[in-house]
Write a structure and sequence with these properties.
478 residues; alpha/beta; Butyryl-CoA Dehydrogenase, subunit A, domain 3; Pectate Lyase C-like; four-stranded parallel sheet; 14% strand; globular; pectinesterase activity; signal; aspartyl esterase; Pectinesterase; Pectin_lyase_fold/virulence
């Protein structure tokens, strides 16, 4: 009997051991991802047992980065002379986007990177891949055969897996709700030299001056730069006022330029700050997409700026961006249009203490047009209005579907304590994804402090900032 019991105990422990191995080897973990087969194919040469979720995340991240590098090589090897003009333009954008994706993945691999930061950069990587594909579709062109299946399927699925795995990875420790600040309101982690620049404000001596009278380094901004590239980080531009210092352009989609390239001013370098500047695209409404400013810069800040255009005036492409006391003008029938096709992307648009109203030239005829708070560009679109004033130009339904076939079940649209003539939510759309938030606790996740982790970076810029729900006048006048 004793021998039989011992054998049973040994067998039981062996059974537990098998379960333990099965639950922790890479292939078993891949079965928990959105695309198990893609995950398994990437890790088939990995021999690792009893790995933690963090180890699995690191292994998969290295494999995803390697796959992205391979995709970039394939794109770079395409013979451009065999492509038509639209395809060349789309392919050139893919090269830029994939280089940025590799940079974001490499940032995520750093041991000093938090899971929250990595989720932002991985979301940017997913958006880059999507934007690459969209460029060909928009221009009515097709992917070069050399890399079409690889880019459209495997890499997109690899990035989706990475987003899911990163989100499921335990945090070493929760980020502090309120970071320690020095007496002047600047986070302690900001370097001493940078603190001096921030505190100095407009008294600092600029590196470059643009002056129309010839007294500066350049006569026009376009001579200096209108494309803030990825390696141009922590750049600050200060104008004389949003109606006095204006960057203008007229590139547009109808004349053959991809939407991504129509921007009068594009920003890719992280840590960019613009203050008291206007950005304008003067292409008329008949020219369709014509962007005034496109930003992909992480932790970028725009303060007391204006953005004027007709369609797609402000292209908020990727990463964390903060707009304060800014004016945005456009003529399309929706204020926002957010795109998110993966549930695990941590992106969205939050309009906090915004004032949505008709411009003076629209006011007399606004009854002839329908205007909506937003429409979903992708199935997981996310847009939230907090404590905003909605004028009577907004349609009572509030929101508009992209088309008749796109589901409105997976999106997240919400409003919290809006004011004004169109604040009444009783006539809003009856969508599963639409929500009326009624408590501070429901709205708090979408504040700058939580949604953007703004305490750790916006505060350091010196721009007026409140971490929580309250502390702003509607329209951003404080």
């Amino acid at each position: 009997m004793a021998t039989l019991l011992a054998n049973l105990i040994i067998l039981y422990f062996n059974f537990l051991l098998v379960l333990k191995v099965a639950a922790n080897d890479p292939i078993s973990r891949c079965n928990q991802t959105p695309h198990p087969q893609v995950c398994s194919s990437m890790l088939e040469n990995e021999i690792a047992e009893f790995i933690s979720q963090s180890d699995f995340r690191d292994v998969l991240l290295r494999a995803t980065t390697a796959r992205t590098v391979l995709a970039l090589r394939q794109i770079s090897s395409v013979d451009m002379t065999q492509l038509d003009k639209p395809a060349k333009a789309a392919l050139a954008n893919c090269l830029e986007l994939y280089n940025d994706t590799i940079s974001r993945l490499q940032l995520s691999m750093r041991s000093s990177s938090s899971i929250e930061d990595s989720q932002t950069w991985l979301s940017a990587a997913k958006a880059n891949e999507r934007t690459c594909r969209d460029g060909f579709v928009e221009l009515g062109s097709t992917f070069p055969l050399e890399f079409s299946s690889f880019v459209t399927n495997h890499l997109s699925e690899s990035l989706s897996n990475m987003l899911a795995v990163n989100m499921a990875t335990p945090r070493d420790k929760p980020p502090p709700k309120n970071r320690r600040l020095l007496s002047h309101g600047i986070p302690q982690w900001v370097k001493a030299a940078d603190r001096k620049l921030i505190q100095a404000g407009l008294t600092i001596k600029p590196d470059l001056v643009v002056a129309k009278d010839g007294s500066g380094n350049y006569n026009t901004i376009s001579e200096a730069t209108v494309d803030i590239t990825t390696n141009m980080q922590n750049l600050m531009m200060i104008g004389d006022g949003k109606d006095d210092t204006i960057v203008t352009g007229s590139k547009n989609f109808v004349d053959g330029t991809p939407t991504f390239n129509t921007a009068t001013f594009s920003v890719n370098g992280d840590g960019f700050i613009a203050q008291d500047i206007g950005f304008e695209n003067t292409a008329g409404p008949e020219k369709h997409q014509a962007v005034a400013l496109r930003s992909s810069a992480d932790r970028s800040v725009f303060y007391r700026c204006s953005f004027k255009g007709y369609q797609d005036t402000l292209y908020i492409h990727t990463n964390r961006q903060w707009y304060r006391n800014c004016d945005i003008y456009g003529t399309k029938n929706t204020v926002t249009s957010h795109g998110r096709d993966d549930f695990h992307e941590n992106t969205g648009i939050v309009m906090h203490a915004a004032f949505v109203m008709a411009a003076p030239d629209l006011k007399p005829v606004q009854g002839s047009f329908q205007t909506f708070l937003g429409r979903p560009w992708r199935q997981y679109s996310r847009t939230v209005y907090l404590l905003s004033r909605l004028d009577d130009l907004i349609d009572p339904a509030g929101w508009h579907a992209w088309n008749e076939t796109m589901s409105v079940s997976n999106l997240y649209y919400a409003e919290f304590q809006s004011k004004g003539d169109r604040a009444d939510t009783s006539k809003r759309v009856n969508w599963p994804g639409y929500h009326v938030l009624t408590t501070d606790q429901e709205a708090e996740p979408f504040t700058a402090g939580n949604f953007l982790s703004g305490d750790s970076w916006v505060l350091a810029t010196g721009v007026p900032y409140a971490s929580g729900l309250y502390g702003y006048d509607v329209g951003g006048n404080n």
